[in-house]
UniProtKB/TrEMBL annotation:
Residues 8-340 form the FAD dependent oxidoreductase domain. Keywords: FAD, Flavoprotein, Oxidoreductase. Metabolizes sarcosine, L-pipecolic acid and L-proline. The gene is LOC106536462. This is Peroxisomal sarcosine oxidase. The lineage of its organism: Eukaryota, Metazoa, Chordata, Craniata, Vertebrata.
Length: 342
């Protein structure tokens, strides 16, 4: 029989949510274990890749308020670790001027006094060359938004967690969770007891929650992460002050299309469709739907004349979605020492 190791808290899932949760717990002098089923680093979940957009351009006030605190925490981590994690690029928001999706975000930014520059058909090209603004579309730039260096972020926060005495065990799949005053977590390599457990396992959340008698209405989708080659290298580069962007809807789709300036791969711009097709997390490579890429090809041919409308590189990522696409952050309804972040 394996000996049980004791911790104040066990966090399951070492993506961005789990890693930062563990780091915050360690800052509060909680003896914390961070578990990850795969060998770190890996590209099988939702937190890999070099870049992510950070913004306040949401359609609800509470996200804007959360982001105010988030920016401060990013700055604190940069200072503490001595590592650059964020680059301010601004975020270009585009969408049909009279559409609900565009107006909701615009009004939320204005209500919360987020610095923005409103553009129109007359001055758009002056500020954003090499992008075509569709007739009837509105546009604005949220100036404080930018790029987070995602892989670097994960490495940094995990290193800081370990410096605070935190323990990371990767390549350990959780096989059982037994609720109680002390929660028992069994893995492929050990047994751990903790006063509280945090589940931040993304696509594998419901598999873990099944051990606790709970299932959430979560849908896992596979996103094709596409990189598009510049016809002239540097046209859309971060150093040319090309911003991140979100197209709230377009003639091609009612879904968001988003992009980041060329930075990760030389001469390539990341532009993606903000949803995908349903998949099983352990069999995601069997899901080969490319309908989203066809939508992106039509959009890029119409709006980005400086890009070749054929993806040069296609990677993948998984999203775990709730019915309203907001996040889950709550205690288990039966066991209040099991916390869920999904």
């Amino acid at each position: 029989m394996r000996t049980e190791e004791r911790f104040d808290c066990v966090v399951i899932g070492a993506g961005v949510q789990g890693s930062f949760t563990a780091y915050q717990l360690a800052q509060q002098n909680r003896k914390t274990l961070l578990l990850e089923q795969f060998v770190l680093p890996h590209s099988r979940g939702s937190s890999h890749g070099q870049t992510r957009i950070i913004r306040k351009a949401y359609n609800q006030d509470f996200y804007v308020r959360m982001m105010e605190e988030s920016y401060k925490l990013w700055a604190q981590l940069e200072e503490e670790a001595g590592v650059k994690l964020f680059r301010q690029t601004g975020l270009l928001l585009m969408g049909p001027e009279d559409s609900e999706s565009y107006q909701m975000v615009k009004k939320t930014l204005q209500k919360n006094k987020v610095p923005t520059v409103v553009l129109n058909q007359r001055n758009f090209q002056q500020h954003i060359p090499n992008v075509r603004l569709a007739e009837g579309d509105g546009a604005l730039v949220e100036t404080t938004a930018g790029v987070l260096y995602a892989d670097r972020v994960l490495r940094t926060v995990q290193e800081q967690f370990k410096k605070l005495g935190g323990v990371i065990r990767d390549n350990e799949e959780v096989t059982d969770i037994k609720p109680g005053a002390v929660v028992t977590v069994s893995t492929s390599a050990g047994v751990y007891g903790a006063q509280s457990v945090v589940i931040t396992a993304g696509p594998w959340t419901n598999r873990l929650l099944a051990h606790t008698g709970l299932q959430l209405p979560l849908e896992v989708v596979k996103i094709n992460v596409c990189y598009w080659k510049e016809k002239v290298p540097g046209m859309y580069h971060v150093k040319k002050r090309f911003p991140c962007f979100i197209q709230t809807e377009s003639e091609e789709t009612k879904e968001h299309i988003y992009g980041l300036p060329s930075n990760e791969y030389p001469g390539m711009v990341k532009i993606c469709y903000h949803t995908g097709s349903r998949t099983e997390p352990d069999r995601r490579d069997q899901q080969t739907d490319r309908s989203d890429i066809q939508i992106l090809q039509r959009y890029i041919a119409r709006c980005f004349p400086g890009l070749i409308p054929e993806p040069a590189v296609v990677e993948s990522c998984m999203y775990t979605l709730t019915p309203d696409q907001d996040f889950v952050l709550d205690c288990h309804p039966t066991y209040n020492n099991i916390i869920i972040g999904a």
